[in-house]
Hints:
CATH class: Alpha Beta
Helix content: 40-55%
Strand content: 15-25%
Number of strands: 9
Mean pLDDT: 89
Order of helices and strands: HHEEEHHEHHEHHEHEHHEHEH
Number of domains: 1
Shape: globular
CATH superfamily: EAL domain
Number of helices: 13
Bound molecules: ligand C2E, magnesium ion
CATH topology: TIM Barrel
Amino acid sequence: MSSMVDDSALFSLNLSAELATLAADPELIALQRRLREALLQDQLSLVFQPIFDIHGLRLHSAEALLRWHHPELGDVSPARFIPLAERSDLILDLGRHVLAQAVAQIARWQAQGLEPVPVAINISGAELKQEGFARQIDEALQRHGVSGRLLRVEVTEHGLISDFARATDNLRAAGELGLGVALDDFGTGYSSFRYLRHLPMHALKIDREFVAGVDRDARDQRVVRAMVAMAHSLRLKVIAEGVETESELITLRRLHCDYVQGFFTGRPMPPADFAALLASQGGATAPT
Ligand code: C2E
Ligand code: MG
Ligand code: MG
């Protein structure tokens, strides 16, 4: 009984802290309201950034990234609105929207006679904790007749920590549907071996923090080399994020990264442009 009292006391403390922050920042409240409207008014869309095999630069997969175009505010960055949405259940609605849009887009490419590559969606902590996480994914796949092998999820260590056991179960269930799992922003969080040991994962994404200027920084090169060796010993593939120059690409190739994503090889692009890329590359490589 005492634990119930403690929990609810803690809850109301958290809640009042949250309200205090919100009250202190009316701009945040307004933005949150606008974001709810955005969901209803179709202001949100997905762009797709290509991920290439680092050696042959063959198209390997894509990351779906959310974009918000507000009629008055213009483009609002996900780096701003995702953390805001994560402060309430709004993130669950956004997550459902992204899942539905991504799977529908894969189905559209297939209907156009293209052979899509796997598409990764970003998953927030609150979504990972949700009961029925894999069921929702399964329903979306079934609705559009899309194979689970064409969908991937990216999770961050930050997203895993609040309920690690549930997150692991959910990711395992998603894995049973054929989905690959990548650990995003690797190196910026706890980089705990616990995650690497226990999670049903396929890939690590090395954060841009270690990639930007890696060609000129011997220390970053040593860090990346160590991350890659560790990942490979755990049979994980390595995706280098945020590669902006050819020199970075060449260095990352030498450091044995497997895949590359960044402005140098391809910016996030609308579905029609990605369709052209799919057509030019002549379809999919086998998902690994
Ligand atoms: P992320 O998942 O790490 O995504 C990679 C970010 O790096 C994207 O920013 C992408 O546009 C950017 N990027 C890619 N290549 C380069 C490069 O060469 N140079 C630079 N400077 N940046 C590059 P974006 O689209 O602004 O997204 C920011 C973050 O917002 C994402 O980081 C992700 O954490 C979150 N996000 C985006 N879409 C979603 C979504 O649908 N759901 C959730 N939960 N989070 C999302
Ligand atoms: Mg990501
Ligand atoms: Mg990242």
